[in-house]
Structures are given as C-alpha cells and as structure tokens.
Amino acid sequence: MSTLPIPSSAEQIQPTSRATTWGDSDPRWIDLDQRIPSDHIVRDFHNAIRLLDFTALLQTYGRRGVTPYHPQRLLLLVLYLAHLGMNSPQQWFEEAIFDLRAQWLLRGDQPSRSIWYDFQKRLPEVLAVLNEQLIRRQIDEGQITGHEAALDGTTIAARASRHRTVNREQLLKQLQLLKASLPPDAQTPTPQNAPGDQPSRTDPIPATPEPVRSDPPTDPVTAHLDLDATPVVAATPVVAAGPVKKPRWMAGTEAGLRRQLAQREAALIELDRKLAVNAQRPSGKRLPAKNVRVSAIEPKTAIGRDKENIYRPFHNVQFLVDLNSPLILGYRLVDGASDCGLLESLLEQWQKTVPIRLLVVDSGYTSGSDLAAAERLGVTVLGHPAGVAHPGRSKKASAKPAKYDKSKFVWDAEGNRYVCPQEKALPFVEFRGKKQSTGEPVKVSIYRASPSDCSGCPVRDACKSAGAKSRSIQRGPHELSVEELKKRMQREESLAYTKRRGQTVERINADVKRHRNLRQVGGHGKALAEVSVGAAVLAHNLLGSLRWITPGDQSSGASAASKGRLSLPLVCEATGR
Length: 577
Prior knowledge:
This protein is α+β, with helices and mostly antiparallel strands. Among the domains are: 75 residues, no CATH class; 72 residues, no CATH class. 34% of the residues lie in helices and 12% in strands. The chain is built from 17 helices and 13 strands. Strands 1, 4, 5, 6, 7 and 8 form a six-stranded mixed beta sheet that branches. It has a five-stranded antiparallel beta sheet with strand order 9-10-11-12-13, with no helix packed on it. Helix 4 packs across helix 17, helix 9 packs antiparallel against helix 10 and helix 12 packs across helix 15. The longest helix has 26 residues. The two termini are 33 Å apart.
C-alpha cells in the first residue's frame, strides 16, 4: 500500500463535508493550538491521519441528505477517546463540548448526540478494514514480519443486564404476555432492526375511527327540548376498572411491544439451539434445561462467569498480538464462552492479512483437532497440552498415590499398541464413539492390557482405576499432533516463547480492561461491541506504528522522537489526560 501524504488543513476537508468552524487563522484555534503541548498524545492521533486510507469510512455516506461533519475528524476523536477509555457516544458528545483537546481535534465542531450515535453505527466494518490496512502497511514496509504471534481470549461484559437472563419457561411466559398485549393484527413480529438502530417508522399507524353518532327518532313530547345541552343534574359516577398492571420490562407503546416481540422470537430460536447443543454434551457436562439461559435483548452473547467471576452476558474477544512489536495483528468477537475449537477459523481469517508461522497459545487452544487444523494451515503451535501439568507449577499434595499418566506409556506405531512402564503390551481392542466438550462426535481407539498382566503388577493400584480389571488407554484421531506438541514443549526455546506470551498478549488483555475501560462494551449487540473493541485496537496500533518508525525518518514529525519511550506493550504510556 502506498504511503499517503500528510494532508494540509485545507486538504483534510472533503468536498461533501461541512466547512470547519475554526479555520487556521481563527483566534480560538490559534489559542488552543498554543495551549496544547507539542508532545501531547492528541497530536499523535492528529498525525495518524497520514497512516490511514479513509475510503471505507467515506463510502458509508451517501450523496444525499444533510452535509455531514468531517468524518475523518470524528473518527480520530473516537480513537483518541477510546485510548482514554471512553467508548460511549454520550461520552463523545460531552467531550466534544467540554474538553479543549477534543475541540482542537474537531476544530470547534460540536456534533449533536444523535450524530454521534449515527456515526457509531457506521464503524463496525470500517474499523476492521482500517486495522487490516494498517497491519498490511507495516508488513509491506518491513516494519514487522508477522511471523511470530501470541493468541489469547478474554471476556468483556455485554451491555445487556445480567439480571434479565431467561430460560425457556420464562421466555415463553414473556412471549405470551407480549402477544396478549398486542392487537391480533399486530402479533406478527416485524423484521428486527440491528442493535442500536432506530425503530422503523414506515409501518402505518391505524387511525382511531370516529364514533358513529345516530340521531334519535323525533318525539313530539320532547321535540322542544335541547337534548345536546349539558344536563343540570350530575350524572351518577361510574367506577372504571383499573388498568392491568404490566411488568416493568414491557414497553408502553405498540411499536415498542412489537420490537420486544421480535427480540423474544429471536431469543427463542437461539435458546432452542443452545438446548440442542446441551443435549448432545456428555452426561457429566450437561446442564439442567432450566439452567440453559439467554439474554432476551442480546441472545447471541454467551452467558456464564467471566474473568471477574460474575455471572453475566459477555463477549468472547480473541486478540492476536505480535511477539516482536507492540502491534495487535488481529481481533475477533466469537460466539460461545470456550476457546476450544476456535483455532482453525481464527487462523483462516487472520492469515489473509498476516503470514503467521509460529503461534504461542495456552492450553485452551491445544486440542487435537485445533493442532491438526494448524498443521494443515502451515502454523507451528507452542503451548502446554490440555491436562498436562505446566513445568514449575507445584500441585497440592494428595493422600492418594498419583495415577500413572498416559505419558508414561510408550506408543508403538508399528504394532498398533501401547507399552506400559512394566514393559507389558496394551493392544488395540475396539473403536468407541465419544463426544467432545463442544458436542462434536469423535471416534477414539481403545487399548487395554490383559487382566493377567495387571493382576500381578506391583504398581496396579497406582495404574488402573478402582473396580477395573486392567488398565485401558484412549487414543484420539489427532493424538500424533498432541504428541508432537509435547516434544516441542520440552525444548528450552519453547518455554522462552511461552514467557514472551505472558509479556505481550496477556498484558494487552489487562491494558484493554484497566486503561481502556473495556470492562463493558459501549452498545447493545455484537456490531456495536466490535466498535468498542476495534476502536481500542486501532488506537493502540496507531500509537505503536507512529512510535515504531525510525527516529531519523523526518516524515514521522514529532512522533518519531517518542520511539525512545516505546515499551511492549504500550500500557505504561501516559494517556496525556
């Protein structure tokens, strides 16, 4: 990608944008520019405009309607505030009015609250494109290689309330109440808008019919009386029935009720899918049906205990971090609470941008199927296999003798058997169906020792299970990939890579939550959650890119001098606030 020139103040204004409130000669702009220090971090975001191609952002605007505010400046302010931990359009609106640095970045423009909320809806795809564009640029210019990376996931609380998750029985009751509150012709739910979208206003609202007044027949006795006049005698008071008390969660308008009905219908579909997956799990890991719950507002979010041990709806966010630079190479919000089974889809997406060759992970990504998928994609995985004790981690002392681990048995590929430490053979016996933790069925091979060999063995109590006649071992279809990983992890350089993982991706997770205030996303739904995460990632990468440029490069301006302050990652940098 070709380097974009640094635009002047006049060139930054697109023809379709509103004229700036403050020009270069405006005294208010000159005063603010003099008050902001030359090395302030807000200037780094202003200089970052040369690193990005805003075509994807400009394409979200049409050629009709009201002339928009300057899109590039709005985005740079969003990135600056994301770096300071402000992820809500309400906060953007307030900072644009009261914060001097925000006024300097916007040149005095003060968009309304509704404009900020509308701008937030334009950003999910735009931020993903800009992040990929920036990483590609750094690879093409030789600043990074992207060959070595670390992967880890974290949980970020969804906007939906943790007190309003429902199971199937509760959800059906809510559906029944909503249908009973709507007229029969309005019970068919309208197509649900995306989270955060404005409700549709195209549906016609049925007008209330005028009451038909029929004139009474003429009576000669009462013909001279004015029947339409207000009667002098007070009418007998009629006690009207009180309104039916609705639950507090129910909307007060028909449009709101129809929107809630559409949300509950979508939640019921998602809940039935979760119930089907739960039914396929092994009996030891299967939840009671009443404990399978969804959020009625954001049914796609996972529900469980997050990293802070709070039971709530949350988003599972995956970060791919370069081991040799401060850059985040990729991010993705995935469905589900577990990291198991995600490696193949994550690598397929990220390898379109980053030529990953070595990936350092934790035990959540080292299942046999994940390792086999990484081998097919040409990626070497380093990480401790699931169920294997980490070196240097002590275990609590147990009164029972430690059972012989599977690693003590030697695999004989030619004889299709295992050999125990007592040099007794465990030949193949049968195939057996098994379900993984994700519910996916898999066929495993069973190897079992002869009962006569185990009966006289001096270590049989520490080897076989209680009640079993002999020792048996399961071998999965991807066992060879797991064994190769165990061999790799016995090398000293592999252990050094795992330490570097703790210094990069795990610190990124801590930085995002602690310093960028991403303990909860800034909007309902996955799309707006991607805005919160994507803005924090792009702000981090822009600062890292500006401070990764060679100090002698004059094109980097004032930011080149700040490379000496660079640390991995940028969690210790001053926020400038």
